[in-house]
Amino acid sequence: MRVFLSVFIIILFLGSCIKDAPKNPEADIVSFDLDPKELTGNTFIDQANRKILLFLTKEAFDKGVAPTITVSNHATVSPASGAKINFSASGQIIYTVTAERSENKKTYTVQVINVGDWSFEFEKWGQNSDDKWEYPLEDNNTAIWSSGNEGVAISGVAKDPLAYPTRSTNDGYQGSRAAEMVTIKGTSLSAFVGIYLYAGSLFIGNFDPSSVLIQPLAATQFGEPYVGLPDRFTGYYKYSPGASFQDENQNIVQGKTDECSIYAVLFEGTERLDGTNILTSDRVVARAVLSDGSRKSDFTKFEIPFVYKQGWTAQPGSKLMMTIVASSSKEGDRYRGALGSRLVVDNLAVIPK
After folding, report:
1. How far apart are CA 102 and CA 27, in angstroms?
2. Which of 107, 117, 285, 314 is 20 to 30 A distant from 156 in Cα terms?
């Protein structure tokens, strides 16, 4: 009996010392799945900006969809997983995720992206609420353009639009605004990992900050669905290279002048390409590349035909993606360029056949 009582007391003592497991504070949408037949491109969850980008067929848009949603452990989501959602003219739906620790909530905006009109005037811009970098917006407030600004923010620049390499400018060809890219000096934090400059960049696609410190080139994910076949790529640009070209180790390269880069790429499939393979993947079927990246003091028009892969023909039902890429330093993806190089682009367009 004494042994039994002793064990009983020990159990009670231990039980009083064991606290309930803390409730999970996470409130994330982990996956957002639809029938592939309802999609023209893969769904993308932008965790940093709490957006879910859908590329729907016209039929799916008109009828509505019922996504299967996975959230953080023990969290709940409203509307519920499997509930049918219908899109208004704005193409936006708001999901609210409530963590197990119920005071923690996140809202996600679901946007239907339709990039049938491939002409861009850069008149409308948004601003990241936390780090203050800018990004272009379409007329319906969707964002299909991205840049390296989100990665630059991680390196500790000032929370000011002008501190970032890509931003809006009033110095446009037509209208009130245009897109400006400037090659800037890296920060003390970026120098610690061997990055001494950031080129301004702008591209159609998405930036994935989760891989920027491990595989910087893989962080730039290019492309949005494209219907039809492009004939030519047009636009206006002006460019002033910085004074001294430096390599990735800050060594000045004598006799070398920085150049800008502007191009459009058409490729097969629904998976985005990235900075490691956008110009080399065998999925690429056509390119339109600016050949002259030298100084242009005034706005200069370009009109570049798409050059298709020899022998390639579009197959019925095949899915294609398109990206447009611009950078203030042509070798900026390798952290080579000239500080102060400045590229301004305006009125870009992809003209279909």
Report:
1. 9
2. 107
